[in-house]
Design a protein that fits this description.
The complex is a heterotrimer of chains A (about 350), B (about 220) and C (about 375). Chain A has about 350 residues and is mainly alpha-helical. Chain A is built from twelve helices and four strands; from the N terminus they run αααββαααββαααααα. In chain C, strands 1-2-3 form a three-stranded antiparallel β-sheet. In chain C, strands 4-5-6 form a three-stranded antiparallel β-sheet. The chains are: A mainly alpha (about 350), B alpha+beta (about 220), C mainly alpha (about 375).
């Protein structure tokens, strides 16, 4: 019974935290874009525009909710929901900190330490396609269908390099459970490099991060919602809070992907050469590990924003070309080299 | 004709997407840091490119072509004599002038022998080209610095004489009056000092051939040519 | 002819985030590949040529502003030169220098907008802002010259109406550095970026023979490899005194048009430098206006006069019947010829390329539809 309550508290905590990140990310995106482009950005709603997300939320809530007459109503309503849920659910297995000791009980900062966490993540990643395709098709609008089609092809194609990069990580660390992968990234190897995934698997890291951009529909891979070509793509017909859920879901997706990048490649909650457990008490260690994790996730979220405002976007066939002709062979090569390296050093 | 085929040849640094991407990101990072530092300064308008309207207004040039003003001379008399040349030259047919002789006892108000009984400019039709200012023989019409002309009804956009004079007073108060434009030197001009209009600019001459307004609604100016 | 039932009809309509003005393209696509693209124009038709028949020669000058509104000065000068040709006068030298300085500034402004919007349509949002900031400085120069930023009713028949602003030299020095910096930043962000290169190299190539057959002029023609620039081939005004290059592309694709425009901005900077040096050497009270008759009543006849506007050869054909209003004014818009060839350029390409091509042609609806 106690365990159930603790798990529920963790679930609520994750929900609130991810939603807050999504809300703050809207502000970060707009303000970051403005700072890069030599303009102030939102600065009217509160100091530095910090209340802008609140204003946006109020605006989206109070707008009229229009469902086009010929749209498939049930699917139209389901689209945004199908888009956001897998991103949230993936958080169930992400370790967002080490452990904390409260009231004599040791609580791991992870909702569910499943020993096939990696498979769960990959499976949920595949589910993310449905939200876009369903939303695009149900809108009864040619632009939306184009967006949905592009999304299908892109998201499905980039799951392969995603999976291949992660497979190499699994080979290196020898376990499917995310918590054990995170724990294994302690210490150093070769004397000076921390045991992080990025140093053991540099090629895998590049593959994974490129595939993460593609999975998140972010520039340079944002064809499904390319504004100048197909006018918002799959969410052209959406307005008011349905659009809000799509946009939110996009940021939650980003948050999930950043968390995964950090867990697999950047040592989850570990600081590079310092062992925090040695000098912090049990409660503060738990909080500190969460904060370190959060800091790393924030860096990757900022990286998403930064790259968005720097590069142009790909064309559809170039995305496919990159995915199938460049990344998948590289992923297989990476797998082969990893296996070779492990065999030689075993 | 066949379309030319392009042989793409990439340098190694271009072929690997990442290197150029990182260079580009370095550039945007520099801009980012500069602007973030600027946004913390307490003075307004620290990010140099953006004016926070309405607190901060961009300073406009002295010869900005904004809302019209009817000028008064140094003794406070109206310069406009109601000749209607501005109405004739206007490409958009937005000026309506009605001319009358100055009545007895009001000579102190007007500088000339005739005056404009009514003078209406339709700001919704005006294209702010500045021809009326150039052509006015008395220098009575000037385009001033006022550009916030949004109103709620079309009727409010018909600027009558009182509004135009008020514009002048407002500009004078704010110190935004400027001396009238000098006509440019013309080829073969006598250029004798003191001569007012040696060979007046072509635009003034062009007035006499200007189109009469075709819209029958407007009152025709009974102007003296 | 294609059977339209086999393909998906996509209407890239007059109001669209990527359309330059009010253009409409009805594209039939097979998946993502465009099979045919029918353009539709006329959404911004305002009857400019008809207006010319009712306004006097002088009154038509502000109307010409509104043709290519990104570089209004070039339209004004082209019209004034046509009327001067009809009258048989020519503007004095100082006025010509002022005209050239302002025209080249307008050319830089137009190219900045075109390159910026090309970037935005392709997803690179930032270079647009870097370029537009410099365009603001150009607008300030225009404002201090004339009073208006966008629709400057520049110049009069026979010359110009005012001298350059007094602080032009400082402003130009600052602006020169700004333009160089913005162009360098755009270059850094775009030109060698492989994503940009993939998007623009080889996209909607066009051969030189085709371009000449369709009547292309301007950067689109020069990108196809034909070295034709009215400023060099048929020098008007005092362009024969300046030393500048004419950048020429090779394949006529989007990348070549983009590079031609970037290089042309640099050449314009050179021209302005040389022109300003000549201008400073002239006496302060040199005439700025030719002796034009009382009412402009050109002798009966017709004239065609063209200049190299930022988009191509902008020509005015004026037929006069001896009265004070023109009998007929016909404007040759450079975008019209280019847009005619658009369906052919885009056949077989993808939708994303259609947008890129349209952006790079710099079709401005005001000029296209008049």
């Amino acid at each position: 019974m106690n365990d159930l309550i603790i798990a529920l508290i963790k679930v609520v905590f994750i929900w609130v935290w991810v939603l807050l990140i999504a809300v703050v990310m809207t502000w970060v995106e707009r303000r970051g874009a403005a700072m890069i482009q030599d303009r102030p950005g939102p600065n009217r709603a509160g100091p530095f525009g910090l209340l802008q997300p609140l204003a946006d939320g109020i605006k989206l809530f109070t707008k009229e909710d229009i469902i086009p007459a010929k749209a498939k109503k049930l699917l139209f309503i389901l689209g945004p929901i199908l888009f956001s849920l897998p991103a949230f659910s993936a958080y169930a297995v992400v370790p967002f900190g080490d452990k904390i000791i409260l009231g004599g009980k040791e609580i791991i900062l992870q909702v569910a330490d499943v020993n096939i966490g990696f498979l769960y993540i990959v499976a949920l990643g595949s589910m993310a396609v449905y939200g876009i395709v369903v939303g695009g098709w149900a809108s009864n609008n040619k632009y939306s269908i184009l967006g949905g089609l592009r999304a299908t092809a892109q998201l499905i194609s980039y799951e392969v390099p995603w999976g291949l990069a992660l497979l190499a990580i699994v080979l290196v660390y020898g376990t499917f459970s995310l918590r054990e992968i995170a724990l294994a990234q302690q210490g150093t190897f070769l004397g000076i490099l921390p045991n992080w995934g990025v140093f053991k698997q540099p090629l895998g890291f590049i593959l994974f991060i490129v595939a993460a951009y593609a999975e998140a529909n972010r520039v340079p891979f944002d064809l499904p919602e390319a504004e100048s070509e197909i006018v918002s793509g799959y969410h052209t017909e959406y307005g008011s809070m349905r659009l809000g859920v799509y946009l939110f879901g996009e940021y939650v997706n980003l948050c999930t992907l950043s968390a995964l990048i950090v867990t697999f490649f950047f040592g989850a909650w570990h600081l590079p050469y310092i062992n925090m457990a040695s000098f912090l008490g049990p409660i503060s260690y738990g909080i500190a590990s969460f904060l370190v994790f959060f800091l790393k996730v924030s860096f990757f979220l900022w990286l998403f924003v930064w790259v968005r405002w720097t590069v142009p976007r790909f064309r559809y066939d170039q995305v496919m070309g990159l995915g199938w002709k460049a990344l998948i062979p590289l992923g297989l090569l990476n797998l082969f080299l990893t296996a070779l390296a492990i065999q030689l050093t075993a | 004709m066949a379309k030319p085929v392009v042989e793409k040849r990439y340098k190694l640094s271009e072929q690997v997407y990442l290197w150029e991407l990182i260079k580009g990101m370095g550039l945007t990072w520099k801009h980012f840091i500069f602007n973030v530092k600027a946004s913390f300064r307490p003075e307004p308008h620290t990010i140099p490119t953006c004016w926070q309207y309405p607190e901060d207004r961009r300073p406009i040039a002295p010869n900005f072509r904004g809302a019209h003003m009817l000028m008064l001379d140094e003794e406070g008399r109206e310069k406009c004599v109601g000749c209607g040349m501005c109405a004739k030259i206007c490409p958009a047919n937005c000026i309506t002038v009605e001319n009358a002789k100055v009545p007895e006892g009001e000579e102190a108000k007007y500088a000339g022998k005739t005056y404009s009984k009514t003078f209406t400019i339709d700001w919704l039709r005006c294209i702010f080209c500045g021809f009326c200012e150039e052509v006015c023989p008395k220098g009575a019409m000037m385009l001033g610095p006022e550009y916030e002309l949004a109103r709620y009804t079309p009727e409010e956009c018909l600027a009558d004489k009182s509004m135009l004079l008020a514009n002048f007073h407002k500009a004078k108060q704010e110190g935004k009056l400027r001396p009238p434009r000098e006509p440019v030197p013309v080829v073969g001009a006598a250029a004798k000092p003191g001569e007012e209009k040696p060979a007046a600019s072509a635009d003034e001459k062009a007035v006499t051939s200007a189109a009469k307004p075709k819209v029958p609604v407007k009152a025709k100016p009974k102007a003296a040519e | 002819m294609i059977n339209h039932d086999d393909y998906v009809k996509i209407n890239i309509g007059p109001s669209h985030p990527a359309m330059h003005g009010t253009l409409r393209v009805v594209a039939y696509t097979d998946g993502e590949t465009v099979v045919s693209a029918d353009p539709e124009i006329g959404y911004l038709h305002r009857g400019v040529e008809k207006l010319g028949e009712h306004l006097s020669y002088h009154q038509f000058i502000p109307i010409t502003d509104r043709l290519n509104y990104c570089s209004a000065i070039c339209n004004n000068v082209s019209y004034e030169m046509a009327v001067e040709k009809l009258l048989g006068v020519s503007a004095p030298e100082k006025a010509q220098l002022v005209r050239i300085i302002m025209m080249e500034l307008a050319r830089i402004a137009d190219h900045q907008v075109c390159v910026g919007i090309l970037g935005v349509d392709l997803g690179a949002f930032t270079p647009f802002f870097y370029l537009i900031i410099q365009r603001e400085e150009i607008y300030e120069i225009f404002e201090h010259y004339n009073g208006a930023r966008l629709t400057n009713t520049f110049g009069r028949i026979g010359g110009v109406e005012a001298d350059l602003p007094k602080d032009f030299e400082q402003r130009w020095k600052k602006l020169k550095e700004g333009i160089a910096r913005a162009n360098e930043e755009t270059d850094k962000l775009l030109t060698h970026n492989r994503i940009w290169m993939d998007r623009t190299i080889g996209v909607t190539t066009f051969s030189a023979e085709d371009a000449l057959a369709w009547g292309f002029t301007g950067p689109c023609l020069r990108a196809c490899g034909v070295k034709r620039d009215l400023r060099k081939d048929e020098p008007y005004s005092v362009y024969d005194r300046f030393d500048f290059e004419v950048p020429v592309g090779k394949y006529g694709d989007v990348f070549d048009r983009y590079m031609v425009r970037m290089r042309e901005m640099e050449e314009s900077v050179k021209i302005i430098d040389q022109a300003f040096k000549l201008y400073k050497d002239m006496p302060a009270d040199a005439p700025l206006m030719a002796k034009v008759p009382k009412t402009i009543k050109p002798p009966a006849g017709e004239v065609y006069s063209a200049i190299e506007s930022p988009n191509g050869e902008l020509g005015f054909f004026i037929k006069s019947d001896g009265s004070d209003k023109p009998y007929r004014i016909k404007i040759r818009p450079p975008c019209y010829m280019v847009y005619q060839a658009f369906p052919e350029m885009v056949k077989g390409e993808m939708i994303a390329d259609l947008i890129a091509c349209l952006s790079s042609l710099n079709v401005i609806a005001g000029e296209l539809d008049r």
